[in-house]
Amino acid sequence: MRVTYTPEGNPADRKVWTFDGRRVRQSEAAIIERQYGKPYAQFVAEAQGGSIRALRVLVWHLMRVADGHATLRFDDVPDFYVGEVELSHSSAELREGRENLMRAALDPAEREQALAIVDAQIAAAEHDETIAAAQGEADDSGK
């Protein structure tokens, strides 16, 4: 999942991180659990679902680990506006979520509705990835 933090009024301080909940060391997952107050798997699911508290813990974790501020206190995380933190998922992540939906114990009508939404998200992500790849190739051609 890609996490983008763009402070209002200061877009030059924009931060973009990639977060893979499966690639977090157990020691860091335990720290996240203590800070969040819930099991790590629930934290990941709630962050992906947009829980504000989970997003704040996620930004704190990324600032500590990815940005090298290991001693950053949770209280020192900026009090960001809700719209300043955005999540996006790769098409591969969305396809994995689609597979999970197929296995989930859902009412068939609910499953079809959820699959339609995920399929639209996959198509949009693939479109964005194609554009990003083409821009990267165009940028690389000038070197």
Would you kindly provide a written description of the structure presented here, covering whatever features stand out?
With 143 residues, the protein is mostly helical. The chain folds into two domains: 2-88, no CATH class; 91-141. The chain is built from five helices and three strands. It has helices at residues 26-36, 40-48, 52-65, 91-103, 108-141; strands at 2-5, 15-18, 85-88. Strands 2-1-3 form a three-stranded antiparallel beta sheet, covered by helices on one side. Helix 1 packs antiparallel against helix 3, helix 2 packs across helix 3 (52-65) and helix 4 packs antiparallel against helix 5 (108-141). The longest helix has 34 residues, at 108-141. It is globular. The chain starts with a strand and ends with a helix.
Question: How is this structure best summarized?
Answer:
The protein has two domains: 2-88, no CATH class; 91-141.
* Percent range of helical residues: 55-70%
* Spatial sequence of strands, sheet with the most strands: 2-1-3
The SSE order reads EEHHHEHH
| Number of structural units classed as domains | 2
Structural class: mainly alpha
* Number of helical stretches of at least 4 residues: 5
Instruction: Please give the radius of gyration in angstroms.
Output: 17 Å
Largest sheet: 3 strands, antiparallel
